[in-house]
Amino acid sequence: MLVKVGVVFFLSYLLGLIAGKQINVLEKIVKSFRIGHFAGTAVIMSLATSVPELTVAISSSIDGSSSLAFGNALGANIANLSLVLGITAIVGGSLHFLNHGETKKNLGYLVYGFIPFVFLTDLMISRVEGLLMILAYFWYLRDVVWKRREIKFEIFLKKNNHVKEKIWLIVQLFFWIIMIIGVAQVIIYFSKDVATALNLPLLFIGLFVISVGTTLPELAFNIRAVRQRKVTMSLGNIVGSCVTNATLVLGLAALINPIQIKNWSVGFLTMSEYFFLAVIVGVFVRSKQRLDRFEGVILTSLFFMYAAIELLF
Description:
This protein has one domain (2-312): Up-down Bundle (A middle domain of Talin 1), CATH 1.20.1420.30. The protein is globular. By secondary structure, the chain is mostly helical. It has a two-stranded antiparallel ribbon. Strands 2-3 form a two-stranded antiparallel sheet. The longest helix is centred in the middle third of the chain and has 35 residues, at 163-197. The chain has 13 helices and four strands.
């Protein structure tokens, strides 16, 4: 059984590495465009880094394990706001957010993360509700992209890019997507065995085992961003990933197979964790317009505290 647990952790880590390869390809594609820092990462990079959560959610829904899809997507959000953002602050030393108005608005998008909990009042996210969640994601895109055209958010394709180079980048992109889907299927298989043998619910496996591995792309991107002092990009990646997971990822999973949880206490506990993290991140950032290393340590510690709470309950 220890071998199976090790395999789950290893494959989750491998999933993150493969997604990292995909991000490298996407970064080359993005270089062909001039995109605003927050909008670019909140849409393009966050969608790219959410591919592991998306593939796990779709694969588990097809396999009839909807609770794993729910646990992985929301667990990834909790990991993003605690583990990923915390380690980013620790590595960066002090993350400074200069534009107060824009930072306040950008953090406001975390409200989208509560949409799944609104639909879970009857312990199920139906196909219709899944469709509404997908529509909410496109509304988010409208707000981030189209409204920001007023602040010169425009996309220009560089003329010096060769067609063959573009085709090769697209081929590489699809190759890594196929690899991610394959690894996700194996993770789901072993996760079921581990959950059954250890009498752990699939929800916990999704929340704190797979979610750690699938948030590695966000962590890798954020570390690169803060080392280059592009703090707005790191925030855009975190916020965008949370919105994508809570709307597009779970929405698609619910369309395939309605998501059901056994009792409301599980959903309420997860919602409370997300709410507290969203509030504390907002307080940390808005109070001094920066996120210090000590605050990063607090956020990272909260992730492990929540893992212990979920295991107990």
